[in-house]
Amino acid sequence: MTLLSCCLPTGFGSVTNIANMHEGSTVAVFGLGAVGLAVILGAKTRGASKIIGIDINSEKCIKGQTLGMTDFINPRDIKTTVHEKIREMIEGGVDFSFECCGNLDVLREAFLSTHDGWGMTLILGIHPSPRMLTLHPMELFEGRTITGSVFGGFKGKTQLPLFVEHFMHAIEGPKLDEFITHELPFNKIDQAFELLIHGKSLRCMLQL
Question: Strand, coil or helix: what is 110?
């Protein structure tokens, strides 16, 4: 239930409900945790032509590719900024970028990676910092937009049951098990948190 009540609806729904992504779109996903991977899954479902995943943990690349990611960038492995690298890969920038880290500097890079005139950045990460976003009004005047998404725009009573039904009975495509990377006994809950903190786990199932 933790998958269907948080990360999956947030990531998948931001693609289908908020961005309303169309076939052939280009996408950049900043942060390949469970929410970011759910964005990748949603983008693949909508027929995105290019899905770029960005994370400082290169081990996330394999899982991203499994769910539909076409390209991967580790910011520590490049000499330019991430948005410059993305603009090299896709002329003008991507149609949609998703910030799934809760990091203000990453949000700035996500915004700059989008295309002038129509690029949309969606904020999915929780931002605990009191810092404000450094943004010049003319950067929005050029047509790019920033918006947030809570729970992927799903209505809990009417839409979430249909979403759950889709994943529980899907014959083709990734299953929920793709997001459960570890299983441990409940008395090893501290180890489960360590795996999560160090980016080794997406979700860990604890057995009572």
Answer: helix
C-alpha dihedral sign at 185, 188, 192, 193: positive
Q: Both tokens of residue 167?
A: 């994943």
**Dihedral over alpha carbons 11, 28, 200, 16 (to 10 degrees):** 10
Q: Which tokens is 196 given?
A: 């999560």
Sequence-ordered alpha helix ranges (H) in the chain: 8-13, 34-45, 60-67, 82-89, 104-112, 137-141, 160-169, 189-197
Strand-pair partners of 58: none
The backbone torsions φ and ψ at residue 122, rounded to the nearest 5 degrees and listed phi first, read -110, 130
Give the span between the Cα atoms of 186 and 173, in whole angstroms: 30
Regions in the chain scoring below 70 on pLDDT: 1-3, 5, 170-175
Specify whether the CB–CB gap between 88 and 18 falls below 8 A. no
CA angle 45, 48, 54 (to 5 degrees): 100
Q: Phi, psi (5° rounding) for residue 99? A: -100, 110
Tokens 């770029």 -> residue? 52
- Taking only the tens place, the pLDDT of each residue in 16-63 is 999 999 999 999 999 998 899 999 999 999 999 999 999 999 988 988
Q: Which of 79, 144, 154 is nearest to 117 (CA)?
A: 144
